[in-house]
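To the wet lab folks,

You asked to see what we're planning to order before we commit. Fair enough. Below is the target structure as tokens, and below that is the sequence we designed to fit it. If anything looks off to you, flag it before the synthesis order goes out.
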């Protein structure tokens, strides 16, 4: 269970510098008496600002950040710099990350406007697809969890600033208070930028990271294994790299993504070394709100049509496709089985619906449940990741075969990205339709599920469709 966070009510701390100073000083005095270190988390209502503009104004390449937006729901969060962070490798990364979060919360004092959406301390998490980095060259560790120094979020027109700072017996309260005031002033100056869909046309020439013929031959080999009943499904990814004549503008690229794909989760997570992983994912892994769990089975794809009639035709083919429905059913059965392992009941629709995006449509079945007992978000994540939608079935065999077929590092591609708050609410997506950006170079990833009946040429065409969706957003 989540540790109880001591709460005090000082809604006007940011409006009165003297009161803020006195409050922080009082926190320090208790630490001198107890010999402890505390995180102080202060939430403040804000005038409407664009979290992406806040990210643009105060984020620094050598500091961690996390950005998250669901445009059609009017929700966005920018998390910048670190008050506390935790990085590790290994098979127990989810449980160790949960222990880190619980430990931080046990030593946190939350104050201010805690009744607002996204108020209070939030922990932002980035995991890699595999639990260990065999090649030693992954840009991200297997798990990164951090409590941001600054968080700015909006839910429609309700905006909140969260400042997290560490106080110990040696803390210089005057310096801490002054730094908070200065950064707050910077945030308040991050007025809405005149963001628009960037039409700067870069001459990007994609280069395959591995020859696409290798992908097609891998599909042929995988189909032979499927016929031999070695496994029933495997998801194979392909990557391309593009070089830009100038450094990519990550914020403008994110803005393009949120305009083009308002139904997707637009995200950006950094490693503090100048590299960002950005994307627009249609796939939510889990959402927990007041102990209510939501997860999605998303598998089976078809293109969108150029006309309403063509679009309806493709949708009908998808809904009736025995191959696509079989692939979708594997994901549903996996999720249901994994939730049952945790003692969680579920509800779902008897037949899949459609999730229709701007360039592609998927079979989609939402699954709902109630969190019972002491089950925590990262326990659920550990059970579900990776689902057959991004790995295969049986999972362990598929994972070993992915290592065999793919000659590049997936890193955080197709891995869980998201947040957990101090009340145990959380939301994680799967990092697909994504790219790793390093100055003027970007690596884009996409995958396709291989099952009996798959055609190598069609699977490659599906991947190219997914890659183009992200490629046209990069500027």
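Sequence we intend to order:
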């Amino acid at each position: 269970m989540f540790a109880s966070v001591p709460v005090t009510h000082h809604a006007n701390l940011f409006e009165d510098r003297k009161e803020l100073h006195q409050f922080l000083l009082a926190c320090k005095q208790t630490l001198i008496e107890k010999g402890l270190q505390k995180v102080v988390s202060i939430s403040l209502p804000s005038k409407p600002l664009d979290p992406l503009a806040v990210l643009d104004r105060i984020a620094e390449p050598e500091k961690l950040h996390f950005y998250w937006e669901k445009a059609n729901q009017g929700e966005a969060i920018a998390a910048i710099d670190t008050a506390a962070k935790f990085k590790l490798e290994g098979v127990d990364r989810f449980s160790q990350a949960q222990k880190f979060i619980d430990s931080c919360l046990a030593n946190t004092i939350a104050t201010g406007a805690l009744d607002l959406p996204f108020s209070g301390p939030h922990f932002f998490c980035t995991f890699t697809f595999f639990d260990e980095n065999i090649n030693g060259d992954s840009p991200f560790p297997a798990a990164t969890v951090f409590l941001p120094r600054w968080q700015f979020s909006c839910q429609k027109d309700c905006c909140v600033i969260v400042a997290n700072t560490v106080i110990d017996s040696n803390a210089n309260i005057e310096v801490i208070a002054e730094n908070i005031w200065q950064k707050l002033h910077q945030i308040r100056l991050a007025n809405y930028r005149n963001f628009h869909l960037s039409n700067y046309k870069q001459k990007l020439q994609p280069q395959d990271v591995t020859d696409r013929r290798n992908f097609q031959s891998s599909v042929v080999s995988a189909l032979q294994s499927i016929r031999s009943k070695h496994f029933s499904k495997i998801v194979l990814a392909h990557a391309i790299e593009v070089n830009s004549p100038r450094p990519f503008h990550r914020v403008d690229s994110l803005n393009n993504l949120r305009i083009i794909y308002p139904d997707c989760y637009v995200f950006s997570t950094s490693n503090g070394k100048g590299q960002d992983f950005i994307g627009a994912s249609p796939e939510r892994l889990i959402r927990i709100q007041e102990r209510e769990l939501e997860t999605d089975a998303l598998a089976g794809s078809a293109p969108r049509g150029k006309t309403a009639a063509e679009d309806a035709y493709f949708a009908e083919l998808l809904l009736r496709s025995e191959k696509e429905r079989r692939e979708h059913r594997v994901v549903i059965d996996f999720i249901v089985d994994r939730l049952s392992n945790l003692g969680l009941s579920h509800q779902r629709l008897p037949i899949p619906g459609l999730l229709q995006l701007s360039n592609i449509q998927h079979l989609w079945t939402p699954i709902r449940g109630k969190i019972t007992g002491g089950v925590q978000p990262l326990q659920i994540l550990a059970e579900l990741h990776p689902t057959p939608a991004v790995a295969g079935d049986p999972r362990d065999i598929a994972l070993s075969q992915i290592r065999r077929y793919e000659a590049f590092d997936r890193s955080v591609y197709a891995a869980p990205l998201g947040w957990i708050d101090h009340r145990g609410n959380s939301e994680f997506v799967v990092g697909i339709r994504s790219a790793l950006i390093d100055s003027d170079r970007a690596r884009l990833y996409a995958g396709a599920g291989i099952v009996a009946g798959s055609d190598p040429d069609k699977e490659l065409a599906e991947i190219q469709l997914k890659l183009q969706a992200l490629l046209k957003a990069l500027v």
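Structural context that might help your review: The chain has a mean pLDDT of 90. The CA atoms of residues 53 and 190 lie 6 Å apart.

Thanks,
Computational group
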